[in-house]
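Researcher: Structure for this, please.
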Amino acid sequence: MKGEKVRRVGCAGLMVLLLALIFLSASYAFGITPSKVEVVVTPNEKYCGEYQLSNSGNDQALCVYVEIKDWEMSDSGGVTMLDQTPVDASGQGWFRISSKKIIIPPNGTKKIKYTVVVPAQGLSEYRKYLIFRSGSVNEGKDDGVGFSMRIVSPFYAIVKGSEIIQFEVSDLTIKTVSPVQVDLSVHNAGNIHIRPTGVVTITKKGEATALLSMEVNTPYPGWPILPGKSFRFSVTDKKSLDAGEYILEAQFTENGRVTDKKVAFTVNDKGELPLAEK
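Model: Predicted structure, token format:
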């Protein structure tokens, strides 16, 4: 009896696992295009666009629920969703979508439209997060346990003619020389989000060719730096630096604008940095 009970429990567990995989495979067939929207708009003029939702590889209809959230970013780059929209008369109601519940047919697609109208006197950039959550068509009408997938899509509306792109590199520091580690910060001093790409180079003083060149990207591919925020970067290389004098340079580019910063440092005969340079 005991062995039979174990077999029954094992079969039940396997069935639950199979059902979970079926539900998950349905959810993972769910997709959104575009995954990120950035538009330039004219105040008091209607701007319209659309999202395409797909339900590929799934022989059942899929229901998608849409939430629209305001959000803020910490100095470390973390995102916090706001449950309530901050009181801001200039930005209320600037973003609308045609539906917050969409039924996608099996192996099919559906489109939803969005409309943007920003006020004449307001912000330089408006932002939202759209959270698309897949679920059962009969959600809430049965006692079953469902599985869902969430896709978060950022939306940016930049007010034409008001944008200021300005950023600066600070705290450029050589931390170690074996292996090489460089720390730096990029501060967004403009009024719209940026995604700067950068390169850190180390050149021996008096020479024209860099010994090291390291790419610098935001913590996550395509992650923005919002106005007034800074990101702290750390880049490394397995190589070591011999004794000598060096120039450390960081150069960042965003939308055709370039900013750079240089610092000099020395590696002593022991392969160490003077304390003042660490």
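Researcher: Any notable elements?
Model: Residues 1-28, 86-91 have pLDDT under 50 and may be disordered. The first helix runs from residue 2 to 27.
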